[in-house]
Amino acid sequence: MTVEQPLRYEADREARTAILDRLRTALDDRPKPPPVRRSYRRTRPTGLDVVGRFAERVADHGATVLRVNDPRDLLPAASELLRGAGVSRLAVPGGSRPAWLARLGIELVVDVPPLTRDEIEEIGAVATECALAIAETGTIVLDTGPGQGRRVLTLLPDHHLCVVRADRIVASVPEAIARLDPRRPQTWISGPSATRAIEPERVAGVHGPRTLHVLIIG
User: How far apart are CA 144 and CA 153, in angstroms?
Assistant: First the structure.
């Protein structure tokens, strides 16, 4: 760093401080704004079908959605989704896993010891559960809890199968925030990954899986 750089930084800081002081002085005689209301609604509206609303909204985002009412139908539904996507290998988080995963008839690659980035990309597909899902926005929230795995495990593969249980679906964002632990790393997913920041064409798979399959139980 040259001598001129800290001097220039100091001059910029002083100029910024002077401008802000003038603004404060000019606004001294103005009435103070009222406090911001924080009384967000944290409960679901009476009669709202949160499961149906979530299924509708997440499908609007471009995800493929299947809903089963009986847990015994979970295996054939998951097999249908994975077979249709051409998935032959599936990364799964470490820890205890639902028994139906072992009966899928495809190779399961457990993230223990932790898979490398190259290994995750080569497998190309992952199956997880979720911490919560939000009906209002069609959003899935992962927080690396049981059945969810590391963030990298759900960001690198091209295909993500997420199992969402009905009792984990809440109505609104404030309700979700009230239930989530802010100390845990969170990933909020609203449909397959896509961006229009490139030329401004819609490009899929830039920030995460380009294919999202959501399997709702209940």
Answer: 10
